[in-house]
Structure formats: structure tokens, C-alpha cells
């Protein structure tokens, strides 16, 4: 058997080396302080700015089997979680190198597979003590001090254009069911002698949770100064508020639309932080410093939570969020708009002038609007053969015109004004519809169709020939989209328009940038922030961030490596098929566990270097070792890590705190997404390891190598 191992190690494990090389390209994408990469498209000579492992892998030429497996693994992680791909990519490379080092020390493949798998499972169980429930996180974040300077940006107005301004998060609303009618805070219609909202500076971060500390009784004349923020609220204590969406959930407060004053109040100390809008703070703690995406997400959370209270729906519904990317506008124009914002051609936009202030009849199509389209699963009639006898070009045109005419006649007969199509639309039919003042929009997401169907009672159809009066909806309105300055935008080739219906829950995050190569990056970052909050709410818990989980894994692995082998039973040694393997099992366990731990140590070191918290990986490793020693001396590594995290001293380099966003803001990680990234990374490495061994030694020898241990390496 040892000769067989030497035969394996004498040859190069090409698959593991390929994984290591591919993962090396993504080192700068790790951590909150990523370094973006430009990817050049040789066919178009255009470059794209990327900052995620998914876009990197999509841009690489993956011709090898190992590269294809890596691509499938990352795509699976992205499809399920939309986060954790960079961690997965890095650990694939780190653990591939670690496995190669084990092979160079003649460690059996069966020992590598068994010990690494059991070690990872043990770590996943150990780090559960670093999980915090969403309730506790919200309570901690809501009770923290307000930092108005944490995020600075230009404030644009909120008006009757349907924009939910991410900067102004405290405003009045006429009707909850009509979110497009919003009164800006500077034009308070209930003002009296004591109303001084435009004189009272309110932090953009004060909307969720911390706003409770600003609420005082109407007759309270005291001055309230928020600790650490420099915000004086004496002029706000006497305000008579009504219709405020952010005060409606604070304890037992009630606001009367008729009287315009408080029916009850809660002061800051007595308010239950769980009743605050802590999801905005949680979104910030999960955003990794993505300011634009975080502010947009906070606006979405505020709107959806208010709607949830009035309708009893889900408090955060990711299916009600869509994006629209506008190239050519500054990033300060990014905002959230109610309804569906999309881009159409100038020819289509010309139709909108006929639709002003009109309720349109809307048609939803779940498929393509083309002559050749057939739904999935369509079976052509049996025993039917079509014979084409070289028809003339004129006859071909006549056949196409016949289909176009019949489709157009159907739309006109039912007086359809607006058609939303999930797939593609025939260009000739599009032109004819424009000529007849029918707006057809293609490539509409299924969630958008569902949202319009619910509020307009429209039922999607697959073919126009299925259309009936009961399938049509009504009440839709179309207008040119207006930006923060209240003006309609004309971007030349494409024109943004907004489709709205009273009561529709759909929200569009309008993402803008003037750099074409950055557009994809802005959209990816926004969706990452959205899905991090989504998965945190689904898990109902989060991990402590800032490297706390990885540091505890390192400490736990070191403890396991120092323990002697604990057989599952007294006869465990006799169960080994080879005495040589049993005699050196303890040595293998220690070596393999240290190799497993090296992946997390490299992870922490690279993140610290990327964030400029360490001048080199050597300095970063020294800092990690220092914390590991202090954790071991403490006697309870988890208690030490938890205390350091709360104090903001976790993995501090010489230049700052690793776990903060520069303002002492604690960060958190998703639980399931992180652990699944670990498991997928290790599963891929072990799969390639065993595949390489089978290629090198043959299937029979590899089966012999893999038959020696799973239950023998029990060290828990």
C-alpha cells in the first residue's frame, strides 16, 4: 500500500493544480475591500469592470474538466444564495494546495478525505455559538448611537413622481395604498407655529430604530442630544405629527389623521427595539460597505414593512423588487421608484403621449410573441408531414403578413393599450403596434407579470389566439420616468418609462452610472445586498462577521489536532485492513487537520491585506496567531472572540479594525450561505483529488485506496 501512495504522489495531480491556478485569479475579490478587475472581450474590444467570482469565472476560458466543475460549483452557489462565491473560490484554491502538501507527505487519500470531511463538520457545529438571532441583532443595532456622518451623499427631493428617496427616510404620506403620492418633508401640510422639520437635522440612519430616541412627549421641553451624533432635537420635541410611516410602529403610539397629533407616545429608553425598523440597520451591517445599494435597500425595507402592517403580507419580499439600469446618469440619481421602470425605444416612447392620465387595458403574455413560438412541452401532431414546394418570395411575405394582421386585429378588437411580454416580440408586429398606438414591452420578468396580474386581475396567456375579455386587466398607467430632479430622462437610444397601478407592491431600484463598464458591477452589488438580507431573514440568524467565525474554526482545529486519536470502539484498530495505516493514523490526523486550518488562516490573512489592515500576509498571519494564542490562554476561545467582536478589536491590524466599516459599525455574515460555501469548496477539492487518483492509478487501485477509513478516523 505505501508503494501505491508513492505511485500516486510521484505523478502530478493536474486537477488540483488547475483549481489552484484558477482560484489565484480571485484573491483580490475577497473581503469587504475588494479590488475590481477589468475583463476585456476580445470579440468586441470592450472592457467590463467585475468584482465577483461569478463574473470572473464567466470570463475565463474553462476548457479543463476541473475548470468546468469549478464553474458549476460557483454557479450553483450563486443561483441559490447570490453570495459567498468569492469565499468558495478562494477556499478551493487554498485547500487544493493543502491537499497537495498532504500528498507530498505520503498521506493516504482515504485519510485526507475522511479527516477533512469530519473536521469541517466539527467546525460547522462548533461555530454555532457565534450565531445571533435576528431579534437580538436588531435590538443591538437599534439601541446603538446614531452616526449621521457614516454615509454622506447629495439629497434629492421626494415628490409625487413615485420616488422613494434613499436619503430622506422620514416623510409624510397621504395614502398608504398610493405610494406614488408622497409629500416631501420640507412641505409639511400640517405645519403650525411649532413645526420646524426643515430646521431639525435628522440623520439618514435615524429612520430605523434609532428614531425612537428622538420621540418625546409633546409637552416635553427638554433638549435631547443623541450620544455621539451631535444631533440636537429640541426643536423636534414639540412637533405634531400625523401619517408618519416610521412612527407608526413605535410601541403603542397612534396617530390620528383628523386631529394631527399624538394619541400616545413612547420615549427612547422605553421603546422596544424589536418594534423599530431594525431591518435597515441589519441591511447596513450585511452590506459590506456598499453605500448606494444599502441606501436603496433601506428605502425598500421601509416601504415593504409599512405595507406589511397594513396588508398583513410578508415583511420583506424579494419577488417584489426589480432593477432598471440607466447608463449615462450620475450614481447620485440612483433611487427606488414604485411600479415598474424599464427602458424602451424612442419610437415606443412616442406612443406614451397618447396615454397621459388614462387607465389602460393591459395584456400579459407568458412566452414569446412571435409566429414560430411554441410553449415548452408542445408536441407536434403525429403522422403529419409538411411539404414546402419552393414558394415565391411574395407568397412568403403574404403568409407573414397574414399572421401579423391577425395578431394586430386581435389586439385592436379587444382595445388593448399595453402588452407586457415575458419573452421576445416580433419586430414587424412591434412596428405595427406602435403605428396603432399599442405599447408592447418585451423581456419582462415573471415576477413583474405576476405583480401586475394581481392588482389588475389580468391573466397571462401563452398565445394571442387564447385572448378573451376576462384575461385583460385595467387601471395601468404609463409615463416617462422622472429622476430626482423631477425631469423626464432621455438617454438617446433608450428612454426610461414607468408603468404603475394603484396598490401595486412592485418596487424598481433604478441604478445609474456614467461608466458603461461599471453598470454590471453596480447591479451585482445591489442584488448581493438584497439577497444577504433575504437569507438572513430566512435563517432568522446571522454569524458574527469580521473574521470571528474563521478565527474560531482555526482555534477549534488546532485543539482537535493536538488531541490523540479516539477510536470509535476498542476493536477499531483491528478493523484497519493494514497495520501500517493504523499505526500512523494519529500522525495523519494532525497533518490533515493543519492543512484544513491553513485554508481559513490564508483566508483571514488575504482579507486583512486586501483591506490594508496588514502590510503583508506575514504580518497578517502574525496577528492571527496572536489572537489564537490569546484565545487559547483564555480557556474559552468562543468567549474571547465574542468579547473582542463586541469591543471592535477583533483582528485589529496596525492601521485599524478589521471588523468595522470605519465608523465602529459591526458587520455580520449569512449563516447558511457561508457554511454551504465551505462545504461546496471542500467537496469539489476532494472530488478532484479522488478523480485524479483514479486517473493516475486506475479505478481498481483507487478503490483499494478509498476502502481504508471513514469510521477509523473518529476524533470528536
Automatic annotation (TrEMBL):
It holds the Pfam family Cpn60_TCP1. It comes from the Eukaryota. Gene3D superfamilies: GroEL, GroEL-like equatorial domain, TCP-1-like chaperonin intermediate domain. One of its GO terms (biological process) is photoreceptor cell maintenance. GO terms for molecular function: ATP binding. This is BBS12 protein. The lineage of its organism: Eukaryota, Metazoa, Chordata, Craniata, Vertebrata. The gene is Bbs12.
Amino acid at each position: 500500500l505505501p508503494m501505491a501512495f508513492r505511485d500516486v504522489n510521484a505523478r502530478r495531480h493536474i486537477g488540483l493544480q488547475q483549481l489552484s491556478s484558477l482560484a489565484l485569479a480571485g484573491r483580490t475579490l475577497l473581503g469587504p475591500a475588494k479590488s475590481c478587475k477589468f475583463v476585456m472581450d476580445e470579440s468586441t474590444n470592450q472592457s467590463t469592470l467585475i468584482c465577483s467570482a461569478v463574473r470572473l469565472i464567466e470570463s475565463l476560458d474553462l476548457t479543463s474538466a476541473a475548470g468546468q466543475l469549478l464553474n458549476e460549483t460557483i454557479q450553483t452557489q450563486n443561483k441559490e444564495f447570490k453570495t459567498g462565491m468569492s469565499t468558495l473560490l478562494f477556499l478551493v484554491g487554498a485547500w487544493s494546495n493543502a491537499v497537495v502538501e498532504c500528498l507530498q507527505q505520503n498521506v493516504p487519500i482515504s485519510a485526507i478525505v475522511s479527516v477533512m470531511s469530519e473536521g469541517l463538520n466539527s467546525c460547522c457545529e462548533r461555530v454555532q455559538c457565534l450565531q445571533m438571532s435576528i431579534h437580538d441583532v436588531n435590538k443591538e443595532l437599534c439601541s446603538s448611537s446614531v452616526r449621521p456622518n457614516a454615509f454622506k451623499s447629495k439629497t434629492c427631493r421626494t415628490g409625487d413622481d413615485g420616488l422613494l428617496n434613499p436619503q430622506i427616510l422620514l416623510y409624510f404620506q397621504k395614502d398608504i395604498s398610493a405610494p406614488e403620492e408622497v409629500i416631501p418633508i420640507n412641505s409639511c401640510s400640517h405645519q403650525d407655529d411649532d413645526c420646524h422639520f426643515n430646521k431639525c437635522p435628522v440623520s439618514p440612519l435615524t429612520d430605523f430604530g434609532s428614531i425612537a430616541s428622538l420621540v418625546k412627549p409633546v409637552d416635553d421641553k427638554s433638549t435631547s442630544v443623541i450620544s455621539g451624533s451631535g444631533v440636537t432635537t429640541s426643536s423636534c420635541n414639540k412637533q405634531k405629527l400625523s401619517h408618519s410611516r416610521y412612527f407608526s410602529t413605535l410601541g403603542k403610539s397612534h396617530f390620528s389623521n383628523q386631529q394631527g397629533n399624538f394619541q400616545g407616545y413612547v420615549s427612547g429608553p422605553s421603546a422596544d427595539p424589536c418594534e423599530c425598523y431594525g431591518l435597515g440597520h441589519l441591511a447596513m451591517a450585511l452590506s459590506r460597505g456598499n453605500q448606494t445599494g444599502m441606501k436603496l435597500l433601506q428605502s425598500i425595507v421601509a416601504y415593504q414593512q409599512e405595507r406589511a402592517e397594513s396588508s398583513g403580507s410578508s415583511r420583506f419580499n424579494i419577488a417584489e423588487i426589480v432593477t432598471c439600469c440607466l447608463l449615462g446618469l450620475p450614481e447620485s440619481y440612483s433611487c427606488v421608484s414604485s411600479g415598474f421602470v424599464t427602458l424602451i425605444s424612442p419610437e415606443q416612447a412616442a406612443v406614451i403621449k397618447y396615454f397621459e392620465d388614462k387607465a389602460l387595458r393591459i395584456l400579459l403574455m407568458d412566452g414569446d410573441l412571435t409566429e414560430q413560438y411554441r410553449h415548452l412541452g408542445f408536441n407536434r401532431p403525429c403522422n403529419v408531414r409538411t411539404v414546402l414546394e419552393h414558394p415565391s418570395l411574395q407568397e412568403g411575405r403574404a403568409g407573414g403578413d397574414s399572421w401579423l394582421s391577425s395578431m394586430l386585429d386581435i389586439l385592436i378588437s379587444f382595445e388593448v393599450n399595453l402588452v407586457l411580454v415575458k419573452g421576445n416580440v416580433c419586430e414587424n408586429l412591434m412596428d405595427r403596434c406602435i403605428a396603432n398606438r399599442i405599447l408592447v414591452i418585451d423581456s419582462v420578468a415573471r415576477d413583474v407579470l405576476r405583480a401586475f396580474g394581481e392588482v389588475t386581475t389580468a391573466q397571462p396567456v401563452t398565445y394571442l389566439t387564447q385572448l378573451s375579455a376576462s384575461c385583460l386587466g385595467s387601471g395601468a398607467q404609463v409615463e416617462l420616468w422622472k429622476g430626482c430632479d423631477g425631469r423626464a430622462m432621455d438617454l438617446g437610444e433608450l428612454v426610461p418609462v414607468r408603468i404603475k397601478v394603484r396598490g401595486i407592491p412592485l418596487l424598481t431600484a433604478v441604478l445609474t452610472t456614467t461608466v458603461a463598464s461599471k453598470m454590471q458591477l453596480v447591479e451585482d452589488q445591489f442584488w448581493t445586498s438584497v439577497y444577504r438580507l433575504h437569507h438572513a431573514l430566512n435563517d432568522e440568524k446571522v454569524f458574527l462577521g469580521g473574521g470571528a467565525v474563521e478565527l474560531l474554526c482555526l482555534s477549534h482545529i488546532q485543539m482537535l489536532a493536538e488531541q490523540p486519536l479516539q477510536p470509535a470502539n476498542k476493536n477499531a484498530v483491528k478493523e484497519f485492513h493494514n497495520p501500517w495505516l493504523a499505526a500512523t493514523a494519529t500522525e495523519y490526523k494532525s497533518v490533515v487537520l493543519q492543512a484544513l486550518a491553513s485554508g481559513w488562516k490564508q483566508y483571514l490573512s488575504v482579507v486583512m491585506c486586501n483591506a490594508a489592515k496588514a502590510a503583508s500576509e506575514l504580518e497578517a498571519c502574525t496577528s492571527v496567531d496572536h489572537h489564537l494564542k490569546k484565545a487559547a490562554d483564555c480557556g474559552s476561545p468562543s468567549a474571547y472572540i465574542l468579547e473582542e467582536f463586541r469591543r471592535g478589536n477583533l483582528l485589529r491590524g496596525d492601521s485599524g479594525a478589521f471588523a468595522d466599516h470605519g465608523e465602529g459599525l459591526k458587520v455580520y455574515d449569512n449563516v447558511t450561505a457561508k457554511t454551504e460555501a465551505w462545504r461546496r469548496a471542500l467537496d469539489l477539492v476532494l472530488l478532484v483529488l479522488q478523480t485524479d487518483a483514479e486517473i493516475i492509478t486506475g479505478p481498481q487501485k483507487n478503490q483499494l485506496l478509498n476502502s481504508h477509513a471513514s469510521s477509523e478516523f473518529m476524533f470528536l
